[in-house]
Amino acid sequence: MRKVQRVRAAWPLRFRVFGYLFRVTVGEGMLKIWGRTNSLNVQKALAALEEACVPYERFDAGLAFGVVNTPEYRAMNPNGLVPTIDDGGFVLWESNSIIRYVCSKYAPHLSPVDPQARAGAERWMDWQLTTLLDPLNAIFRPLVRKMGTPDVAAIEKARVECVQNFAILDNVLARQPFVTGATFGIADCCIAPVAHRWLNLPVERVPSPHLEAWYARVLERPCGTVLELPLS
Ligand SMILES: N[C@@H](CCC(=O)N[C@@H](CS)C(=O)NCC(=O)O)C(=O)O
User: Fold this and answer.
1) If you ran DSSP here, which 8-state letter would residue 220 be given?
2) pLDDT tens per residue, range 118-144
3) Which ligand 1 atom is the nearest neighbour of the CA of 40?
């Protein structure tokens, strides 16, 4: 499998060097992640790694890059989907589980332990998977990935759902700077790539000043580097 990217440079070099030396010293080696950078679920995992300041090696995988159907990959991830990580021999798939793991282990400040704060954050992560994702895909796949013949009525129905969903976020972000309160956390890692996709889709949106202000704040953070690519 071709290695395409080493440590990213979003954080000051001294933090990266410290992280690298720490991992080498304790014998963990560099964390590995498989997945193409235009995948939403890969972006979520990368956002967590960037925010947690974890040095990593990324390997392109999925769609045109293949890899996901090789026996070696399937042994790690039997779904044949991306992302997958290998952290010193600990293999994990499912983007939200990766976010939880990376933040709990490497960035506890992003990962609440208080049961109510934890549930509050995880609620948004579940909501991203169960509510935000499907209508977004119903627009993204035909209009950006050019998958199938666009069904205008289905796209419009999905657009209306997205407008309603993102209005919920806009209302929350009118009261606080980040999804779960005053500081950036796991829920922001999870939702930022989805908002990036919504705010860049070629469809009509209603004004969402608080969502857009939050997104601008997120772009200034380490995870903003993950969101630089145009949609593809
Ligand atoms: N529930 C999984 C879904 C993973 C998933 O559907 N990944 C997509 C990319 S976003 C995928 O692997 N598509 C096939 C491919 O890229 O070959 C997760 O959150 O990690």
Assistant:
1) T
2) 999 999 999 999 999 999 999 999 999
3) 10
